Amino acid sequence: MSTAPAVNMLKRVARINQPVKILEKNKMEFQTKKRMTIRESKDKLTAKQQQVLVYALKGYSNNKIAEVLGIKSITVRIHMFSVFKHFDVHTRAELSALYVCEYALEFEEKLMRGF
Fold first, then answer.
1. Average pLDDT per block of 10 residues along the chain, 115 residues long
2. Residues 103, 39: contact at Cβ < 8 Å?
3. How many whole angstroms separate alpha carbon 1 and alpha carbon 108?
4. How far apart are CA 102 and CA 40, in angstroms?
5. Residue 83's domain is classified under what CATH number?
6. What does the alpha-carbon distance between residue 57 and residue 91 come to, in Å, rounded to a whole number?
7. Would the pTM of this model clear 0.90, i.e. be above it?
8. Phi and psi of 81, rounded to 5°?
9. What count of other Cβ atoms lies within 10 Å of the Cβ of residue 87?
10. 8 located within any domain
11. Nearest in space to 46 (alpha carbons), one of 83, 94, 1, 10
């Protein structure tokens, strides 16, 4: 019996159990690398790309986004590819981390100023 599936599962669990390290890494990248922020995206993305972005950040699948927006799943996939390119990310997880880091930094700045 092969142990490869078990080893792969343990690696996945180890990655899941390290969200703080991932967020810290993404926070550092966000601070050092000039990327387009979620707020800046309004001027750079089309209206449909913005809609797809909002639903993707809410956790909707491509099929669900297509259903809600009344477009084909492949069209959603193309819009997601464009969104990834604009934000210089490769996955939805990276996109979500970018969103979280952006608003975490804003919240941190407000805390420092005393709201």
1. 59 54 57 65 86 93 96 96 90 88 73 69
2. no
3. 50
4. 11
5. 1.10.10.10
6. 12
7. no
8. -60, -45
9. 21
10. no
11. 83
